[in-house]
Design goal:
Layout lengths: L2 H5 L8 H11 L2 H8 L6 H11 L2 E2 L14 E3 L2 E3 L3 E3 L12 H11 L4 E3 L7 H6 L5 E5 L5 H14 L4 E4 L9 H5 L2 H6 L2 H4 L3 H5 L2 H9 L6 E6 L3 E3 L4 H6 L7 H8 L4 E6 L2 H9 L4 E5 L12 H12 L4 E5 L5 H9 L4 E4 L1 H10 L1 H22 L12 E2 L7
Parallel strand pairs: 4-13, 5-6, 6-7, 7-10, 10-11, 11-12, 12-13
Antiparallel strand pairs: 1-14, 2-3, 8-9
């Protein structure tokens, strides 16, 4: 067992939440809070996890379940687990292995993953790291020409689908990032960085890996014609000038002939618009509480969206997943698959690829144990009869 594996092994790490303090110790505060924080007062960030506590199970007792089938199908392709790794921007700052390490850990067990446009590694490298389905999440930063080039690269590389994020007309204000000097650390001069450097130097292991990896690199999947790869510091400004609208789905469909997912849907009205725009799936998401604060928890919005699409598109969910039980509650309420972001990002920050592997192992073990306790042999057999929801959730 390697040192990294020992760091996240039982009894040190028993559940996903145990990865969080390990990650906090391993990386500077600015990096940890980039993973951990949310927008403004972080009300939605907290609600995302709290909402799962309001849903309770209704198990079938005295049922023998010797084995459990965790497999499901997502947009026509089979995945070994009913959760996938969510797109998280620039994982490479958390650990040099970044998106490649995460994809490799997921692919080893047949789990899917979604790669962010704001990746530290080229999309071709990430796809090559995983034999399992990999989806490409699209921001249109850099303009339409840059987006079309990224879409074509994803097609050639063999990505299974395109996940279009629709909830970022501007970047949400993440107050922790401002207090921690994230902007100054990325793009400021020495004097700007000085107040924040002592905390960085208190994490020599992270700093050595960061410097060996070349520091902050341009974004290899956002290549602006005539300019080259976009610098990481330009992303926030670019978001404000490249808002995705429903009308944009036409040219996106013209570029991408495979399935398209609309990510960031929170209402039935927008779910129907997504279906009308040609989306094969909608992902119920509030961006992990990182964009507009005080919107509904993702799980709370799920039943409305499921009712609105009427089976015309798959429904995904992302936000607040910390346990296998959370995954199963979302499936019972109509999600086809869920996306986990912070759960594996904590693992990556804590121990690189070994930490991502440990997060996936924990969630998979949770799933199997909880299914057996529910008296259900397969995730595909789950439905609303296995859960109770508060009356005020009813659509």
């Amino acid at each position: 067992m390697t040192r990294a594996e020992r760091r996240v092994a039982s009894p040190h790490v028993v559940c996903v939440d145990d990865l969080r303090p390990v990650a906090r110790r391993r990386v500077p505060r600015a990096v940890f809070d980039y993973i951990d924080g949310g927008a403004e007062g972080e009300l939605t960030l907290r609600e995302n996890t709290r909402a799962f506590a309001e849903v309770t199970f209704r198990p079938r007792q005295a049922v023998a379940v010797p084995t459990c089938d965790l497999r499901t199908r997502v947009l026509g392709v089979e995945v070994a687990l009913p959760f996938m790794l969510a797109p998280v921007g620039y994982l490479r700052v958390m650990h040099p292995g970044g998106e490649v390490a995460a994809a490799r850990a997921a692919g080893r067990v047949g789990a899917g993953c979604v790669l962010s446009t704001i990746s530290g590694y080229a999309l071709e490298e990430v796809k090559a790291a995983s034999p399992a389905p990999v989806f490409f999440q699209l921001y249109c930063v850099g303009g339409r020409a840059a987006a079309e080039a990224g879409i074509e690269r994803a097609r050639v590389a063999g990505y299974a689908g395109l996940v279009v994020t629709i909830d970022t007309p501007v970047a949400g204000i993440r107050e922790r990032d401002h207090r921690n000097g994230m902007k100054e650390l990325i793009s400021g001069g020495l004097l700007d960085r000085l107040p924040f450097l002592p905390d960085v130097f208190r994490h020599p292991g992270w700093l050595l890996g960061f410097l060996r990896d070349g520091g902050i690199r341009p974004l290899p999947n956002v290549v602006v014609p005539g300019q080259g790869p976009m610098p990481l510091l330009d992303v926030g400004a670019a978001l404000a000038t490249t808002t995705v609208t429903w009308a944009d789905f036409k040219w996106i469909r013209d570029c991408w002939r495979g399935p398209i997912v609309a990510k960031g849907v929170l209402t039935g009205d927008d779910a129907r618009r997504a279906v009308d725009a040609g989306a094969a799936a909608v992902s119920v998401s509030n961006h992990g509480g990182r964009q507009l604060d005080s919107v509904a928890a993702a799980l709370r919005a799920l039943p409305e969206v499921v009712a609105a699409v009427k089976g015309q598109a798959e429904v995904w969910l992302d936000g607040g997943i910390r346990r296998g039980a959370d995954v199963l509650k979302a499936l019972c309420l109509g999600a086809q698959v869920v996306l986990c972001g912070r759960a594996y990002a904590y693992g990556l920050a804590a121990a690189g690829e070994a930490g991502v592997t440990r997060a996936i192992e924990i969630l998979a073990a949770d799933l199997e144990r909880t299914l057996k306790l529910l008296g259900c042999a397969s995730v595909r057999e789950l439905d609303r009869s296995y859960v109770s929801v508060p009356k005020h959730w009813e659509v």
